[in-house]
Amino acid sequence: MFQEQMMLRIPGPTPIPPQVERAMNRPMIGHRSGEFSRLFAETATRLKRVFQTEQDVLVLAGSGTAGLEAAVSNVISPGDKVIVLVGGNFGERFVKIGEAYGATVLRVEARWGEQIDPELVALTLAEHPDTKAVFATHCETSTGVLHPIEEIARRVRATDALLIVDAVSSLGAVELPMDEWGIDIVVTGSQKALMLPPGLTFLALSARAWQAVEESRAPRFYFDLRAYRKQLQANTTPYTAPVTLIFALAEVLTLFEAEGLTAIYDRHLLLQAMTRSAIRALGLPLFTSEAAASPTVTSVGPCEFDVEAFRKTLRNDCNLAIAGGQQHLKGQIFRIGHMGYCSPADLLQAIALLEIGLIRSGVQVELGQGVRAAQAVWLEQKEVVHHG
Ligand SMILES: *Cc1c(COP(=O)(O)O)cnc(C)c1O
């Protein structure tokens, strides 16, 4: 029934606001037209605020991984030593990309579900002063952990290494002031906190990172960032721009400006608190500690019931899509995405459905307990706001 009501509470792709959907129905225009150039130039400028940077924000056609690959191929030459911080599936992906480009990869690891220890990063950098770059994941989507980038950046800034951050599932939902913290490359994608369909990746580079781009000897063509920067200065893109997605992006930026970045960050913190409180009230285990939890995705587990059957029940009976675990966590945990176009009301609905799914899966929970706990968190936050 009502297939179009399927609620996407997975950590990407995320739901698209109706204004943004409507923007994509605009008739096509030429990517070299004056109209497109004006729109593109304006969009690129507005994006800087979301990245909290004075640097150019480059927009490329491709999924988030294309942006990660561009970050590697534009600064790493074969034989360069890099440190990759690995605490989940996306950290592992950075390792694979680095190795594909011939880098010598050192790993600094955290157990899945835990944060990377910034001291360990500093120690590894001290042992390897010839490190070209450190690759970090801001929100490790596979575990729901937010890694301490500010602390890591402080350690990396004390060395010659560049800091490259995968912020695909955090930028636009969680504070990440690129210039202030001294991050050299920030990469994100369209289909997570930015409320867009999949298909765009974004990169911003520091002056030091641009220097490394000039010096890199790795082969690259479509993702040669110098071409994107050069064309951006002429208000265009080197190859045919994904025009429809740029229409949508302009609308997203309007929504961002209307809500305000601080309010957006606060909303995600509220969604995180409501979700965690509901899970606790239902007597289920949270996979990450309070201090390590991401405001964009909450992992629940390890679970004693059949997680995959539970997810299927939710999808089929309740029109609610949530994510399962990845790799060795498959069948162990489930993940609730609450980033982008997600309000407290949306979340209450998801939690109410979660309770039905749990009971139908034979899990002993008391109906309404999760909802009530989440409502209380929301009410409390409203009171704090009202009382100043
Ligand atoms: C979603 C995601 C990516 C990008 O994946 P694509 O499927 O290539 O868009 C990269 N890193 C993180 C942390 C992600 O959550």
From TrEMBL:
Protein name, as recorded: Pyridoxal-phosphate-dependent aminotransferase family protein
Residue ranges annotated for the Aminotransferase class V domain, each copy included: 28-327
Lineage: Bacteria, Bacillati, Bacillota, Bacilli, Bacillales
MF GO annotations: transaminase activity
InterPro entries linked to this entry: Aminotrans_V_dom (IPR000192), Aminotrans_V_PyrdxlP_BS (IPR020578), PyrdxlP-dep_Trfase (IPR015424), PyrdxlP-dep_Trfase_major (IPR015421), PyrdxlP-dep_Trfase_small (IPR015422), SP_NH2Trfase/AEP_transaminase (IPR024169)
Family the UniProt entry places it in: Belongs to the class-V pyridoxal-phosphate-dependent aminotransferase family.
UniProt keyword list: Aminotransferase, Pyridoxal phosphate, Transferase
One of the Pfam families matching this protein, by short name: Aminotran_5
Needed co-factor(s): pyridoxal 5'-phosphate
Species name: Tumebacillus lipolyticus
Lineage top rank: taxon: Bacteria
